[in-house]
Design brief:
elongated, seven-stranded mixed beta sheet, alpha/beta, binds tyrosine, Rossmann fold
Length: 485
């Protein structure tokens, strides 16, 4: 249906096709009586997403004290946020920008996601202490596909799981563009002649992203230095072609946003705005990005729903209230009561579990959340039922590092045979002794008799799988081919 259609259309977005998903063209709104009433009935201030400041999601606004509230209240606006496809998935660090965009969409504004097919190749120096490695055009293109899929998934899940019918009908549109579509046609002399002239060296040099690098031994190359000009031109381009006056990004994007503001102001005389969402940092204060080496990804093939869920369940109490406000759409009053209950019995981690459930549902949908909970029960509560209902994919996601082997079950196969088939124990008497010493578990139950013949429903689950554990946490997964359906 809708989702299928967008999925199919997705690869075509590459090369600059504007992909407009969800939401209807405004002209349609004005002719459809029913929708028009709904739109009119939205109170003026409902569009003013800045009222969400108590959630902490919109941390800073540039220029300060500007007329942004009035602009927002005047009617649906277009807001954009760019993502450079330097990897094939976004990570939790990017999630707040997406959630910021979703708040705009909920308030009826038009959302424009910009994939930086061109800018990813230049490398944004903002917030980085070292140069980015060059990424080939092909890799960037593939990465953009992965990122687009992840973003579409989040918007789709949001509409499905976090909006009632009326809210879903009032969502603003979502479009995905790629800045390669305008840079691929630009010739360098013309660009420097028409755009470059508006950028003053002293201003560019004064940016924090430039200063911090110039002071370091790493230095900075010309390509990185010009990055701010490209992001500024993007803003200008979107302003001219999509009437976009608002850019959203992490706090590290302030310099690039100001460049855009200044450029647009100089060329058109128009005021535009930058809105910054907080940067998510780990408990040690590091930025949660992929360079910090601690990335939690949004795409399932890189971080499973279970891992994402557990990441949020593990958050310390000191983060939890702030994260509930930032990462979920739960009304503030309800967050207060969640926190009251939590404070009475913090050991239960109820607030963390709620946070984890909300985020997992947003990123992986209802089904992803079920997977995450099933995996949690199978692993931490040694639930046979949960193990039994798990698919191969879930099991492999859960025991990522665990070797997986496929075998044919022969009559009379014993515990020892299973351990050997899975190469889980050393050859000879030492392996045998590991079993008798109590170092082996099959499907969460300790087995101490090597000659015991495997029993269906106990050692072999009805889904044709055996989960073998050696010691504390060395897992092996065995799939019995002639039993699996
Ligand atoms: N510079 C942004 C990505 C971006 C790219 C192009 C833009 O026009 C805007 C933003 C970042 O690194 O996060």
């Amino acid at each position: 249906m809708h989702w299928e259609a967008t999925k199919m259309a997705a690869p075509m977005a590459w090369g600059g096709l504007v992909l407009t998903l969800f939401g209807r063209p405004r002209s349609f709104l004005s002719v459809s009586g029913k929708v028009a009433v709904r739109i009119r009935s939205r109170c003026k201030s409902g569009r003013n997403v800045l009222q969400l400041h108590r959630r902490g999601i919109f941390k800073d606004i540039f220029p300060e004290g500007g007329d942004l509230p009035r602009l927002l209240e005047s009617g649906p606006q277009t807001v954009y946020c760019g993502f450079d496809p330097t990897a094939d998935s976004l990570h939790v660090g990017n999630l707040l920008a997406l959630i910021g965009l979703l708040h705009f969409q909920r308030a009826g504004h038009r959302v424009l996601v910009l994939l930086g097919g061109a800018t990813a190749r230049l490398g944004d120096p903002s917030g980085r202490s070292s140069e980015r490695e060059a990424v080939s055009a092909n890799t960037v293109q593939e990465n953009a596909r992965g990122i687009q899929e992840g973003i579409l998934g989040v918007f789709h899940n949001h509409r499905l799981c976090f909006c009632n019918d009326a809210e879903a009908a009032n969502l603003g549109s979502l479009s995905i563009l790629n800045n390669w579509s305008w840079y691929k046609e630009k010739e360098v002399v013309g660009f420097l002649d028409t755009v470059g002239r508006h950028f003053r060296m002293a201003t560019m040099l004064s940016r924090h992203s430039v200063q911090s690098r110039l002071k370091s031994s790493e230095g900075m190359n010309l390509t990185e230095f010009t990055y701010q000009m490209f992001q500024a031109y993007d803003f200008y381009y979107l302003n001219q072609h999509h009437n976009c006056r608002i850019q959203l990004g992490g706090t590290d994007q302030l310099g690039n946003m100001i460049s855009g503001y200044e450029f647009i102001h100089k060329v058109t005389g128009q005021d535009v705005f930058g809105i910054m969402v907080p940067l998510v940092t780990s408990s040690s204060g590091d930025k949660l990005g992929k360079t910090a080496g601690n990335a939690v990804w949004l795409n399932r093939n890189k971080t499973s729903p279970f891992e994402l869920y557990q990441y949020f369940v593990r958050q310390p109490d000191s983060n939890i209230e702030r994260y509930l406000k930032l990462f979920t759409f739960i009304p503030l009053a309800e967050i207060e009561s969640i926190m009251d209950i939590h404070r009475n019995d913090p050991g239960k981690r109820n607030a963390q579990k709620r946070l984890a459930a909300e985020v997992t549902k947003l990123v992986h949908g209802k089904e992803g959340l079920e997977t995450a909970k099933r995996c949690t029960r199978a692993l931490y509560h040694s639930s046979m039922d949960a193990l039994e209902t798990m698919s191969d994919e879930e099991l492999q996601e859960l025991f990522k590092e665990a070797p997986f082997s496929e075998n044919l079950l022969e009559p009379g196969t014993t515990v020892l045979d299973l351990c050997r088939k899975a190469s889980a124990i050393p050859d000879g008497p030492r392996g045998y002794q590991m079993i008798t010493d109590g170092g082996i578990w099959i499907n969460h139950r300790q087995v101490t008799k090597p000659e015991q013949v495997l029993i269906l429903g106990q050692h072999i689950l009805t889904n044709g799988l055996s989960l073998l554990r050696v010691g504390k946490k060395n897992y092996h997964i065995v799939k019995w081919l002639n039993l699996a359906e």
